[in-house]
Design goal:
Blueprint lengths: L16 H12 L4 H8 L5 H7 L13 H11 L12 H11 L5 H11 L7 H9 L61 E7 L7 E7 L5 E6 L4 H12 L9 E4 L8 H7 L3 E4 L9 H13 L11 H12 L11 H9 L6
Parallel strand pairs: 1-4, 4-5
Antiparallel strand pairs: 1-2, 2-3
């Protein structure tokens, strides 16, 4: 008799970029490999996490970069990174058109099935399609279109830059700390908790104030004539005045001197202001991401004094009408309307 050599089936669920981003965040926060495995779930074993971070200490020392690790993993697996779907003219045309509107590959990926039933494409396939248009030295291949300029970070190659240097800014010990902010804000369940920041330019004293709501992702932008706290306060109060008082709860900001007019904001708007810890931009992570998106429209060295209010409002509109993965393809404006009944029109 022949032996039955049937192999025992096992379902392998490889780490993807989203998993690696969560590992990077948790690892930098000092969580152990066991804790990280529990956060990821999906039958993740702590040995998988340990191999992924390559034996680095468990308390966040050393460096682990999710994007670099993901690129390396894709190169090692010949079955990944297939580009067949972008040979579909409908998909390829949709990808190119939306990228030129400022959409990210991830947003294109989640919105495509909504607008074109039966079609789908992964954001990794879009990235590979973009970088396949250029040769190894970064030059565009003959007859190809260079789409890198439309990517969120416009990298000429698939690599990450080092961490941004912290700025030396004045601080006041008496500022209301984020440690006293209600714990419910972290859960992102109630609409009404905002973050803000100031986008600066070396070319002018004019600046742009960005304010975002943590649950819906809605963004408000306003032009500051200069970097004074009076201007910062004015823009925040004007932009948030469009939100009904039941949905104004907290505002979290950094310790830049332009933000020290917090008491005036609390006297005008029915919300409480809190300040993040020094050099802890991750405590306002959503807002940091928004600033990166705004920079796509107004790169560094842009003279904000020459930027009109109409141009700023157009960028705000584009950001608020972009599909979001965490909302299943819905836009921030759609989510805000669905959760609060508040409609923002342009």
């Amino acid at each position: 008799m022949k032996k039955n050599n049937r192999r025992k089936r096992r379902d392998f669920n490889h780490l993807d970029l989203n998993d690696r981003v969560q590992i990077e965040i948790s690892y930098c926060q000092g969580k152990s490999v066991t804790e990280i495995a529990q956060i990821l779930g999906k039958r993740r074993d702590k040995s998988t996490i340990s191999r992924e971070i390559d034996g680095r200490p468990s308390k966040g020392r050393g460096r682990y970069r999710a994007y670099q690790a993901n690129v390396k993993a894709l190169k090692q697996d010949k079955h990944r990174g297939r580009r067949e779907r972008l040979k579909n003219e409908t998909v390829r045309g949709y990808v190119v058109d939306k990228m030129k509107l400022g959409w990210s590959p991830e947003q294109i990926s989640i919105r495509l099935p909504i607008e074109h039933k039966g079609e789908s494409v992964s954001y990794e396939a879009i990235y590979q399609f973009v970088y396949d248009q250029v040769s190894g030295n970064g030059t565009v291949k003959k007859g190809r279109d260079d789409l890198r300029r439309y990517l969120p970070r416009r990298h000429s190659r698939r690599s990450t830059k080092g961490a941004r240097k912290a700025q030396k800014i004045g601080r006041l010990e008496s500022l209301p700390s984020i440690e006293n902010r209600p714990a419910s804000v972290d859960e992102r369940k109630e609409v009404g908790n905002f973050e803000d920041d100031t986008i600066v330019s070396r070319q002018s004293v004019a600046r742009i104030k960005s304010v975002n709501e943590r649950v819906s992702g809605v963004v408000f932008l306003g032009k500051m004539k200069d970097g004074t706290s009076e201007e910062s306060t004015r823009v925040v109060c004007e932009r948030l005045s469009a939100i009904p008082s039941p949905y104004l709860k907290t505002l979290t900001r950094d310790r830049g001197t332009e933000n020290f007019g917090w008491e005036k904001i609390e006297s005008v708007l029915p919300l409480k202001v809190y300040f993040a810890h020094p050099y802890c931009s991750h405590e306002r992570g959503s807002n940091e991401n928004i600033n990166g998106l705004v920079r796509r429209f107004f790169p560094k060295k842009t003279d904000f004094a020459t930027v009109t209010e109409e141009e700023i409002q157009r960028v705000e509109y584009l950001l608020n009408t972009r599909p979001r993965k965490r909302f299943g393809g819905k836009t921030p404006l759609e989510v805000l309307l669905e959760k609060t009944g508040v409609a923002i029109t342009y």
